[in-house]
Amino acid sequence: MSYITKKFAKLSQKETYTRYLSTLKYAFYVIFHPADGFWDLTHAKRGSYAAANTLVILTMLTHIWKLRYTGMLFLDTQWQKVNIFLEFATILLPLVIFCICNWGVTTLFDGKGRLGEIYMGTAYALTPYILLQIPMIILSNFVTVEEGAFYTVFNDLSLMWALLLIYMAMMMIHSYSAGKTFLFMIFTVFGMLVFIFIMLLFFSMISQGVAYFVSLAKEIMFRLN
């Protein structure tokens, strides 16, 4: 019985790994067939959270690699002053805030997408950034200033392609028209600004409150002494 259990466990692990590779590979289909790709990503369960998490991690690592290994002609970064965790946050926090705000706004207006589906679609949409930035990081160390236009074009293309895919992802996931999707993308950006403002205000109040009680405690200790 133990042998049979172990065999089934191995088969289950193999199926899970095969499923993971299949959903990760599906990202290549999504970026070239966004309409069908994003629809099937959630409705036909062609995507997975494991693959989405992998793509987000690769995006953050690519950002770090770009800061570290891009040629000095195109990006002069003082690596000693780079805070890796802060750089990770510049990718992860906007992603999380976008997903929350988009879900919050679209839920009020018949959006079909759930929070997890929005996250998955956005994560898959980041694939062009990874695919284009990595070779550009390598080439930036070999091209001259005169050939820099080539680097700039593909660098901008990776960002524009990813943004276009995010737009397509939201349109397919929420079953919106193109115009309605564009409108709610604007609302989402506005919601992100409001969200960030509230968070900054909240943490500012907390820091001021903590500073007040710390100064009060110091004053009491001073008087007691």
What does this structure look like?
By secondary structure, this protein is mostly helical. The termini are far apart. The longest helix has 47 residues. It has 8 helices and no strands.
Quick recap of the structure?
The protein is 82% helix and 0% strand. It is built from eight helices and no strands. The relative contact order is 0.11.
- SSE order, as H and E? HHHHHHHH
Shape: globular
Proportion in helices: over 70%
Could you tell me the number of beta strands?
Answer: 0
Mean pLDDT: 85
Quick tags:
mainly alpha, 8 helices, 225 residues, single chain
Chain-wise SSE layout:
Elements (H helix, E strand, L loop, with lengths): L1 H31 L1 H10 L5 H21 L14 H24 L7 H11 L1 H13 L8 H27 L3 H47 L1
